[in-house]
């Protein structure tokens, strides 16, 4: 059973999302002796076990005590695991044999079920920790400290903040259902954005209480459609209470009250979710065994030309494109033949915006135009296409439009296959905007039951191996 399956089973069993933090600050324990730290944690574990979906010991406080602290940490993890999964807060991140050694330390020597990790050394730094599906990782995405804004909100060439790129990468790396994200409760806007990017993943949301995070707002922003998927650590607030067990129950009850209303993730059961499911239902996306033009065998196939045969779904797609276009400044829609012609026409009719299209070939007679339709030199055209893979098919169309005297800075597609198109277009001064990334679709399809976890994992493995 995967780590998150076990965590979810525990959360359902006791109806709790509380993660009890084990942070033995010397001022809380009253001493810096390893045996006292161990005993203090053991008492806290016994008092809070009935309401703890997980425990989260902070390794730093134990490591600071030397070899005795290390033994105390091992004893604390062993005791906590008798009740609930243990997330070891170590924030690891290294590569090759060093990463393997860290993984062995956390999972074999100490016996933890999961660890926290930094994403900034990339996928290979995580692989030793993700090899065993029964062990998990919570990847730092948007942390709760004020300094997180120094780096994590920096905009990429696509305009998205770095933390959303981390969330998208995590979705693609989560092939064994043992990778989650850390998003601070101190930034509920980021929490909601990450939940949209990763509607199915578990999120560890520190920062409630002394750091200023609101429990109610965090639940509203971060819960999944099923009312789960959010693990909320609380440490000092419980540890400082005269009766830690009672305080843990009070916090648990607060969480239950926050989950009692309408499912906050109904915001995901919206037009985007319906469109994602419809693409599978009408055959625009199929799963099986397909041979691609490149000769590769793929577990899925996308054919958005079929949208023209399904007017209701085409209307849904046009509405989804419009939500992206509303944030852009342009004069003309420029649909790339042939796949995007029906989409462009539907958009023109729905928005009352004029459409043109770049020719695939320029005839040597007549007007010899590279772009068809009515436009004026100097106007801005936004390119409309169905898919983005590497971006190669877009360059010729953009060049035709620019030769005709039009300005082009933005390309909008329904699906970004995340195969390098955004970076390639950015080098040419073009911004890629997608209604969906393939990672987002996989999460939405899993949520709606359109695909199984195995199918989603097969697609992610194919995309990772094929580049």
Structural class: alpha/beta
Q: How does CATH name the architecture of the largest domain? A: Alpha-Beta Barrel
Largest sheet, if any?
8 strands, parallel
Overall tally of structural domains: 2
CATH class of the largest domain: Alpha Beta
The count of β-strands is 16
Helix share of residues? 40-55%
The rough form would be described as elongated
Number of helices: 19
CATH superfamily of the largest domain: Aldolase class I
Low-confidence stretches: 265-269
CA gyration radius, whole angstroms: 25 Å
How much of the sequence lies in strands comes to: 15-25%
Q: Give me the oligomer status.
A: single chain
Q: State the strand order across the main sheet.
A: 2-1-8-7-6-5-4-3
CATH topology of the largest domain: TIM Barrel
Q: How far apart lie the N and C ends?
A: 29 Å
- pLDDT averaged residue by residue: 89
List the helices and strands and how they pair.
Layout lengths: L2 H12 L3 E5 L3 H4 L4 H15 L5 E4 L1 H5 L3 H15 L5 E6 L3 H14 L4 E4 L5 H8 L5 E7 L19 H12 L5 E5 L4 H10 L5 E2 L10 H8 L7 E5 L1 H4 L4 H15 L12 H11 L3 E7 L5 E6 L8 H15 L6 E4 L5 H11 L3 E4 L12 E2 L7 E9 L3 H12 L3 E10 L4 H7 L3 E7 H11 L4 H14 L1
Parallel strand pairs: 1-2, 1-8, 3-4, 4-5, 5-6, 6-7, 7-8, 11-12, 11-14, 14-15, 15-16
Antiparallel strand pairs: 9-10, 12-13
What does this structure look like?
- This protein has an eight-stranded parallel sheet.
- By secondary structure, it is an alpha/beta fold.
- Helix 13 crosses helix 14.
- It contains 19 helices and 16 strands.
- Helices cover 43% and strands 19% of the residues.
- It is elongated and about 85 Å long.
- The protein has helices at residues 3-14, 26-29, 34-48, 59-63, 67-81, 96-109, 123-130, 162-173, 188-197, 215-222, 236-239, 244-258, 271-281, 311-325, 341-351, 392-403, 421-427, 438-448, 453-466; strands at 18-22, 54-57, 87-92, 114-117, 136-142, 179-183, 203-204, 230-234, 285-291, 297-302, 332-335, 355-358, 371-372, 380-388, 407-416, 431-437.
- The longest helix is centred in the N-terminal third of the chain and has 15 residues, at 34-48.
- The protein has two domains: 3-260, Aldolase class I (TIM Barrel, Alpha-Beta Barrel), CATH 3.20.20; 271-466, Rossmann fold.
- Residues 265-269 have low confidence and may be disordered.
């Amino acid at each position: 059973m995967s780590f998150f399956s076990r965590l979810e089973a525990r959360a359902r069993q006791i109806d709790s999302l509380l993660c009890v933090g084990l942070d033995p600050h010397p001022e809380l324990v009253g001493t810096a002796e390893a045996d006292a730290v161990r005993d203090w944690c053991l008492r806290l574990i016994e008092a809070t076990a009935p309401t703890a979906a997980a425990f989260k010991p902070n390794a730093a406080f134990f490591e600071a005590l030397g070899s005795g602290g290390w033994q105390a940490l091992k004893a604390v993890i062993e005791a906590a695991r008798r009740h609930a999964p243990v997330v070891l807060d170590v924030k690891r991140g290294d590569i090759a044999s060093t990463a393997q050694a860290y993984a062995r330390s956390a999972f074999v020597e100490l016996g933890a079920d999961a660890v926290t990790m930094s994403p900034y050394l990339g996928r290979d730094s995580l692989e030793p920790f993700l090899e065993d599906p029964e062990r998990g990782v919570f990847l730092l995405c948007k942390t709760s400290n004020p300094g997180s804004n120094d780096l994590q909100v920096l905009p990429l060439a696509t305009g998205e903040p770095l933390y959303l790129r981390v969330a998208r990468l995590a979705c693609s790396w989560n092939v064994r259902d043992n990778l989650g994200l850390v998003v601070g409760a101190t930034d509920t806007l980021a929490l909601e954005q990450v939940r949209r990017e990763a509607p199915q993943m578990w999120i560890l949301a520190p920062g409630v209480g002394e750091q200023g995070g609101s429990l109610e707002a965090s639940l509203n922003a971060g819960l999944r459609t099923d009312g789960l998927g959010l693990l909320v650590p609380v440490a000092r607030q419980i540890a400082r209470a005269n009766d830690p067990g009672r305080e843990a129950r009070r916090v648990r009850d607060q969480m239950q009250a926050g989950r009692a209303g309408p499912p906050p993730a109904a915001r995901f059961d919206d037009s985007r979710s319906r469109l994602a499911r419809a693409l599978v239902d009408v055959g625009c996306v199929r799963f099986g065994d397909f041979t691609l033009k490149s000769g590769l065998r793929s577990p899925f196939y996308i054919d958005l030309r079929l949208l023209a045969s399904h007017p209701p779904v085409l209307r849904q797609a046009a509405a989804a494109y419009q939500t992206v276009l509303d944030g852009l400044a342009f004069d003309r829609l420029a649909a790339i033949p042939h796949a995007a012609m029906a989409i462009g026409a539907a958009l023109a009719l729905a928005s009352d915006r004029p459409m043109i299209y770049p020719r695939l070939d320029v005839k040597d007679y007549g007007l010899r135009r590279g772009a068809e339709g009515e436009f004026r030199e100097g106007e801005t055209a936004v390119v409309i296409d169905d898919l983005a893979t590497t971006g190669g098919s877009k360059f010729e169309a953009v060049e035709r439009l620019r030769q005709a005297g039009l300005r082009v800075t933005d390309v909008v597609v329904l699906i970004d296959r995340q195969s390098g198109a955004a970076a390639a277009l950015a080098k040419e001064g073009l911004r890629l905007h997608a209604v969906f990334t393939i990672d987002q679709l996989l999460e939405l399809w899993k949520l709606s039951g359109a695909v199984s976890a195995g199918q989603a994992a097969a697609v992610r493995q194919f995309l990772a191996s094929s580049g």
